[in-house]
Write a structure and sequence with these properties.
Helix content: over 70%
Order of helices and strands: HHHHHHHHH
Radius of gyration: 17 Å
Distance between the termini: 33 Å
Strand content: under 5%
Number of helices: 9
Number of domains: 1
Structural class: mainly alpha
């Protein structure tokens, strides 16, 4: 029952759109699928780090106000910056990758870093996982069970993000969204900037 409750709460959180979704959408539409997967891997790795902290019972991290403040301000600045880049991007067809731009570098490491930075600098990820394990996981739950919970959640994050990338990045979807790509980029830029501003003010 404990696992079902945790898995359900985690999946419901995944369904709510956040900065990671817009990064995945931008990459899947503008770049080859392998780079979208790289962004997904970066996001998943950052989530895994926070899950390891939660699994090990290091809830005190959540109460380290200076650390949370640093994450908040760095994260808000990063999201606003990425949003700004998307808002100022010129109109161009999906087939044009804009090589050399900060967001469109054909590098697995670079795209991984974009996804990782987005997720690791979001203090809400840390707070969510630590709260989840504090409130919903019994103190008597063995470490191995907690580790399996964490492994499940990491797997679901990666599978969900990759699923989004596949749905948006396939040839048919790109063909259908060709006329909307400029507006979608601007929407992504606006939403990322808004997430950054809200994070700063939170």
């Amino acid at each position: 029952m404990e696992f079902i409750l945790i898995a359900s709460a985690h999946f419901l959180a995944l369904l709510s759109p956040g900065p990671d979704l817009f990064l995945i959408m931008r990459t899947a539409l503008r770049m080859p699928m392998r780079y979208a997967f790289s962004v997904c891997a970066g996001i998943t790795t950052a989530n895994a780090i926070y899950l390891i902290i939660a699994v090990l019972g290091l809830e005190a991290v959540r109460d380290m106000n200076p650390l949370m403040s640093v994450l908040k301000y760095l994260g808000s600045g990063y999201l606003i910056y990425i949003g700004y880049l998307l808002l100022r991007a010129p109109q161009r067809p999906i087939s044009q990758n804009a090589e050399g731009g900060v967001l469109h570098q054909s590098s697995f490491v670079h795209q991984f870093a974009l996804g990782f930075t987005s997720a690791i600098l979001n203090p809400k990820n840390a707070i969510f996982y630590l709260s989840l394990f504090t409130v919903m996981v019994s103190a008597e739950t063995p470490l191995i069970a907690r580790a399996l919970y964490g492994l499940w959640m990491v797997s679901i994050v990666f599978a969900w993000d990759m699923g989004v990338a596949v749905v948006l990045g396939n040839r048919r979807a790109k063909s259908y969204l060709e006329r909307w790509i400029f507006g979608l980029e601007k929407l992504s830029g606006l939403m990322l900037s808004l997430f950054g501003i809200l994070l700063f003010l939170d």
